[in-house]
Design goal:
Length: about 425
C-alpha cells in the first residue's frame, strides 16, 4: 500500500505511542512489570464507590439507561452535564460563563489536537504560526499533535537548586520573547511531567503577554482545580475570555470515559463544537452520565479536596523518601512536589542518556518515561533534557517501592 504524508507523520516514532504501548504491555502481560511510567490514575476506593453507585442507579432506570447507550448527544456534549458545570464554575469562582463557553471532547488529547491546529500552522495572512511552550519540560502528549513537524517553540526554564536534593523550574521571563510567529501560549498546571505549579504571578504575567499579543493562553488543567485538585501548594484558578482552560475527568478516576472539558470564548468554543461534529459526530455520553450527580451535589469537589489530593500527597511523600534513600550519596535532584502524580528525577552528568537508562530499567521489568520526550520545540541540544526521568507514584505502594529500589540500583551502578 502507498500512504500519504499524513500517515507517515502520525506513525513515526513517538513518545506518547511508546508510553501507551508500555502501559498496555504492563496491563496485559503475563510477566510482572513495575509500571511507573504511565499517567494512569490510582484506583481510589472511595472514588470508585461513588462511580459504582451511580452505575447501579443508571442500570436500575430503563429510560436513562436506554438514553445513555442508545442516543447521540449533541456535538457540544451532554447539555445537562454542561449546565451543571456552568453552575459549578459560576458558584465557585464567579466567572459568569454560560453553556456557550463550554464544549466537551473525547478526552484531553483530542482537545489539544483541535486547539493546537486552530492556533498554529498556515494562516490566510501573516507568517506561519507555532505554539509557544514558555517553560520546558512539558507534557509528552503535545509533541506529535501537529499537522506539521515544527509546531512548537519550547523555552528553557530557570532552574533553582534547593537544599536536600530538591530543585524547581521557573519561567525565564527575561529571555522570553513573543513574535508574530506565535499563535498561542500553552502550559500545564500542575505541569506534567514535573509536578510544578506555576505561581499565580507567573500565570498573570503570561495572561498579560497573551492579551498584549492578541493570542490565547491555553492552560492544561488536567490535574488542577477544582477537580481532581492534585495540588499541594497555594494556587488560584482564574479564567478570562483570552484564556482557554482544558480539564478532564480522567485524573478524577475516569480515564476510560474519555471526557475532556474546554472552557473558552464562545466563538472559539463554537469552532470546537463544529470540529467535534466532523471528527466524531457526537461526544460520548458515558463520562457525563457518570459524573453528573457528582457535579450537581459538589461531591466531585469534596472528593477532590478531601480524598484524592490527600491520597496522592501521601504517596508522593512516601515515594520521594524512598527515592532519596535509594540515591543517598549520589548527585541527584528531585523536582519540588507541588502537584500531579509524578516524581521528576534529574541526574546531572548522567554517564548515559536517560533513554538508555529507560531501556536498562525496562529489561529489569521497571517502566519509567525517559525525559528527552518532554522537551518539544527545543532549539538546541540541551544536556539537561537527557538527564531526567518521569516516575509515576500512582500505582500500589509495593510496586512503587520495588520499582524505585531497582532504579536506585541501576543509577548507583552507573555512577560508581
Amino acid at each position: 500500500m502507498h500512504y500519504s504524508k499524513f500517515q507517515k507523520h502520525f506513525t513515526e516514532d513517538s513518545g506518547i505511542v511508546r508510553l501507551m504501548e508500555d502501559l498496555g504491555d504492563a496491563n496485559a502481560g503475563e510477566n510482572e512489570l513495575l509500571m511507573l511510567g504511565g499517567g494512569n490514575p490510582a484506583h481510589i476506593p472511595e472514588v470508585q464507590q461513588f462511580i459504582m453507585e451511580r452505575l447501579e442507579r443508571i442500570a436500575a432506570d430503563p429510560v436513562e439507561f436506554a438514553q445513555i447507550i442508545g442516543d447521540y448527544d449533541p456535538p457540544r456534549g451532554n447539555m445537562e452535564f454542561i449546565e451543571a458545570l456552568v453552575d459549578l464554575f459560576n458558584s465557585e469562582y464567579r466567572w459568569e460563563i454560560g453553556v456557550e463557553n463550554i464544549a466537551l471532547t473525547s478526552g484531553s488529547q483530542a482537545a489539544f489536537f483541535m486547539l493546537f491546529n486552530m492556533f498554529s500552522g498556515d494562516y490566510d495572512k501573516g507568517p506561519r504560526r507555532k505554539i509557544l511552550l514558555p517553560m520546558l519540560p512539558e507534557y509528552i502528549g503535545y509533541s506529535d499533535l501537529g499537522l506539521s513537524s515544527d509546531q512548537f517553540i519550547g523555552h528553557k526554564p530557570e532552574i533553582e537548586k534547593m537544599e536536600d536534593h530538591w530543585f524547581k523550574y521557573h519561567v525565564d521571563f527575561e529571555s522570553l520573547s513573543i513574535g508574530p510567529e506565535i499563535g498561542a501560549i500553552c502550559i500545564s498546571r500542575p505541569t506534567n511531567p514535573t509536578g510544578n505549579v506555576m505561581s499565580d504571578s507567573e500565570i498573570s504575567h503570561l495572561q498579560v503577554l497573551a492579551s498584549n499579543h492578541d493570542i490565547p493562553l491555553i492552560i492544561d488543567n488536567a490535574y488542577g482545580m477544582p477537580f481532581p485538585n492534585i495540588i499541594y501548594t497555594d494556587a488560584t484558578l482564574n479564567w478570562d475570555k483570552n484564556t482557554i482552560l482544558c480539564m478532564s475527568l480522567s485524573k478524577f478516576g475516569l480515564p476510560g470515559a474519555r471526557t475532556g472539558i474546554i472552557i473558552g470564548d464562545a466563538d472559539m468554543i463554537d469552532s470546537i463544537v463544529k470540529m467535534n461534529a466532523i471528527f466524531s459526530l457526537s461526544i460520548g455520553s458515558f463520562g457525563p452520565a457518570l459524573a453528573l450527580d457528582l457535579v450537581h451535589t459538589r461531591d466531585i469537589i469534596n472528593l477532590s479536596n478531601n480524598v484524592i489530593r490527600h491520597y496522592y500527597r501521601r504517596k508522593a511523600e512516601q515515594a520521594a523518601n524512598c527515592l532519596h534513600q535509594e540515591l543517598k550519596g549520589l548527585n541527584f535532584y528531585t523536582h519540588k512536589m507541588e502537584g500531579a502524580i509524578f516524581l521528576w528525577l534529574w541526574l546531572p552528568d548522567l554517564p548515559i542518556s536517560c533513554h538508555e537508562l529507560y531501556l536498562r530499567l525496562k529489561l529489569r521489568g521497571v517502566i519509567v518515561v525517559p525525559g528527552n520526550y518532554f522537551f518539544p520545540g527545543l532549539s538546541d541540544d540541551w544536556p539537561h533534557s537527557k538527564e531526567c526521568l518521569r516516575i509515576s507514584y500512582a500505582m500500589h505502594d509495593s510496586i512503587v517501592e520495588k520499582g524505585i529500589k531497582i532504579i536506585g540500583e541501576e543509577v548507583r551502578a552507573l555512577y560508581t
